[in-house]
Write a structure and sequence with these properties.
Blueprint: E1 5-10, H1 13-21, E2 30-35, E3 40-46, H2 48-52, H3 61-67, E4 72-74, H4 78-92, E5 99-101, E6 106-110, H5 121-136, E7 140-145, H6 148-157, E8 163-165, H7 171-174, H8 188-196, H9 202-207, H10 210-217, H11 219-228, E9 247-258, H12 261-281, E10 284-295, E11 300-311, H13 314-328, E12 335-347, H14 360-380
Helix pairs in contact: 1-4, 4-5, 10-11, 12-13
Length: about 425
């Protein structure tokens, strides 16, 4: 028996929440963006009127204003968005405990074991849509399918406020004509490589020999072929279930573009503190530190470095990350988002090879200091203790990465 997977996507989420708090925005083109006063940053979300005017998510505010001079720009209010995100998840929890987040506004829900209580998959999806609309005043689009990849394609297929069901019987009719870039995790670089092979649709990918894809894309080629043919079978994570940890990371889309190493430093230290706190909670240390970068054109890359000694200190993590940024980013194109990840993990209780050149007394002092800061923050809030550099730009340092920030996951097939 096939599984029943839903993918629920809140439509124009940030803009929809702003329209609830400000009804005057409902009948005018509006968008949520970066530094509204300076007309600086990017479009994070837009309403349907702005969309009809050609405004797109991710473009610069000045570009959006050229397309739509009457566009109303609104500052993002993440506390409101997080509150609504939690409320909509409470509705989802009435139907299943298998709920996996894919950002602040998207989730997968596995209702295989409970579908018999609610009727057909489409009827259940429609019922959830109506509840969200009536109880919260925002809309969602829902994809229904037998795996996560096709469920997400379904939620993207028709918007806003719609249900699309993709079955084994209609998958070739609905999925295969779609552009290859609509397939989950197919970014700009992969799209270009596939186009060189004459692959423009998901159907093209599905009917291409696996060996051809593997020669061009390595093992990732086989993964895409399986996705296109509906053979993706990863599980939907149960709420609050923590899988075996292979890496710990955090990333953020910044409220304004990052144009210098100092900008990057402020955000990096906040992310590093979050990663370090999670490492200590899990009694783990990391030997590899990675950074992830996306610029204002949504182009990105990752870099990593092997440490001489495993660590769970935020200063060590941030120092390694900043070294990678210094070597690999020239800021000719400003950055939109960055991430920091710790991997190659080991349990603290295991014997650790000491570095002869490390001052172990100073190391223990630093560890004691960070542990104390973590306790203070746990009791009085993240902002109760801050580095002085955070005061240089409150806009960049205003988020709490550990408690209030929703992390966009890496692809679930990577470690």
């Amino acid at each position: 028996m096939d599984r029943v997977i839903l993918h629920c996507d809140l439509n124009s989420f940030y803009a929809s929440v702003e329209c609830l708090h400000h009804p005057e925005y409902r009948n005018v083109p509006m968008a949520v963006g970066g530094d509204v006063e300076k007309r600086h940053g990017i479009i994070l979300a837009k309403n349907q009127l702005a969309k009809k005017a050609g405004v797109t998510t991710g473009e610069a505010l000045w570009q959006a204003l050229q397309k739509c001079p009457d566009l109303i720009l609104v500052k993002p209010n993440f506390s409101h968005y997080l509150r609504f995100s939690r409320m909509v998840r409470a509705i989802y929890a009435d139907y299943s405990d298998k709920i996996e987040s894919f950002g602040i506004d998207e989730v997968w829900i596995d209702v295989t074991e409970s579908i018999h209580l609610f009727g057909t998959p489409r009827a259940l999806a429609d019922a959830i849509r109506e509840r969200v609309k009536l109880e919260l005043g925002v809309t969602i689009s829902v994809g229904v399918s037998f795996n996560k990849v096709f469920a997400k394609l379904g939620s993207d297929y028709k918007k806003p406020d719609a249900t699309t069901e993709i079955t084994r019987e209609n998958m070739k009719e609905i999925v295969w004509p779609l552009p290859i870039e609509d397939l989950l995790y197919v970014g700009r670089a992969t799209t270009q490589k596939l186009h060189l092979l004459g692959i423009y649709t998901i159907g093209d990918c599905a009917t291409t020999e696996v060996a051809v894809l593997k020669r061009r894309l390595g093992k990732w080629g086989e993964v895409l072929w399986r996705f296109a043919n509906g053979e993706e079978n990863s599980v939907v994570s149960v709420q609050h279930y923590e899988p075996l940890v292979k890496s710990i990371g955090n990333s953020t889309t910044c409220p304004r573009d990052l144009r210098s190493l100092q900008d990057v430093k402020i955000v990096t230290y906040i992310l590093a503190e979050s990663v370090a706190a999670r490492l200590k909670e899990a009694h783990l240390m990391a030997s590899v530190i990675s950074i992830g970068v996306r610029d204002i054109h949504l182009k990105g890359f990752t870099r990593q470095i092997k440490l001489s000694q495993a660590t769970h200190l935020s200063d060590d993590i941030a120092h390694a990350a900043m070294g990678l940024f210094d070597k690999n980013v020239d800021f000719t194109t400003p950055l939109r988002s960055i991430g920091v990840k710790a991997s190659d993990l080991s349990v603290i209780e295991l014997p650790i090879q000491l570095d002869l050149f490390t001052d172990q007394v100073a190391h223990q002092r630093a560890l004691n200091l960070e542990n104390t800061i973590d306790v203070i923050r746990e009791r009085y809030g993240f902002n109760s203790v801050q580095r002085l550099m955070m005061k240089e730009d409150p806009l960049l340092s205003q988020f709490n990465p550990k408690q209030d920030h929703v992390i966009f996951p890496e692809s679930y097939f990577k470690g």
